[in-house]
Design a protein that fits this description.
single chain; 258 residues; D-Maltodextrin-Binding Protein, domain 2; six-stranded mixed sheet; globular
């Protein structure tokens, strides 16, 4: 009974088959939900133009559809809400797929595998990821992000400090408000390069995140098109080239080793 009720709620929150695909093609616009500050995935320049790895992916997808990309700037939680409320056709913004989010929206196949790592200042006494799980330490994390429940389970004893953006979390670390920052390894690598000699990552990882494209639930035609495009993007090597352009190294392989 509970499962049937949940299914009916999820279906009611979704769209009709073919609705999103038809809307995108007929309007000539692809509305993409992105975070305004999540470099190098997404970032808003001073002139208001968006840039980043996920921005390039969105533009490539729009080009394949022969439509114009239109970016809808949201916060972390808004990546889901924009799809639920019909404000966006896709979310492409360091967006990790999980079961909880999949109750109300749908996800494409993954296009990037991201390990979760811990960033600290160079002089920190912390050495391994496991060292963080101590009540005397404060750990920053993104409010409403995919890692929030993972971090709560992995580090039940640490003082978890929630921030709305990566920039806020990083500022808290640099100013000594927190002792460590939880985020993906690629973001940390960029910050280490930008702050030479000041930051380092702890040994080990706390999660394996699958970044995917979020779409409104209930439109299998739209999801089919998104997945086919991603398959071709990987097969041609374009995804690898775009990743290397923004991160400076080759991406991890997508297939999981279980």
């Amino acid at each position: 009974m509970a499962a049937a009720l949940l299914l009916s709620v999820c279906m009611a929150a979704g769209v009709q088959a073919g609705e999103v695909l038809n809307r995108v093609i007929s309007s000539g616009k692809l509305r993409v939900a992105v975070m305004g500050s999540l470099p190098p995935y997404t970032n808003m320049k001073p002139d208001g133009e968006m840039e980043g790895y996920d921005i390039d992916l969105a533009r490539k997808f729009a080009e394949a559809l022969k439509v114009t990309p239109e970016f809808v700037v949201v916060d972390s939680a808004g990546r889901v809400a924009a799809l639920q409320t019909g404000k966006a056709d896709v979310t492409i913004s360091g967006f990790a797929r999980n079961v909880q989010r999949s109750l109300t929206i749908a996800f494409s196949d993954p296009y990037l595998i991201v390990p979760g790592r811990i960033l600290v200042k160079t002089e920190s006494p912390l050495q391994k990821v496991e060292d963080v799980n101590d009540p005397k330490y404060k750990l920053s994390l993104n409010r409403g992000g995919n890692s929030e429940p993972i971090i709560a389970a992995k580090f039940p004893n640490v003082q978890r400090m929630r921030f709305n953006t990566n920039a806020d979390g990083l500022n808290a670390l640099m100013s000594g408000q927190v002792d460590a920052m939880a985020q993906d390894a690629f973001y940390h690598a960029e910050q280490i390069a930008k702050h030479p000699g000041q930051l380092r990552m702890l040994d080990g990882s706390y999660s394996r995140q699958e970044d995917a494209i979020g779409v409104p639930a209930g439109d299998p035609d739209w999801l089919r098109v998104v997945n086919l495009w991603l398959e071709q993007l990987n097969a041609t090597g374009e995804n690898k080239e775009l990743f290397k352009k923004w991160f400076g190294f080759d991406p991890p392989k997508i297939n999981a080793d279980f």
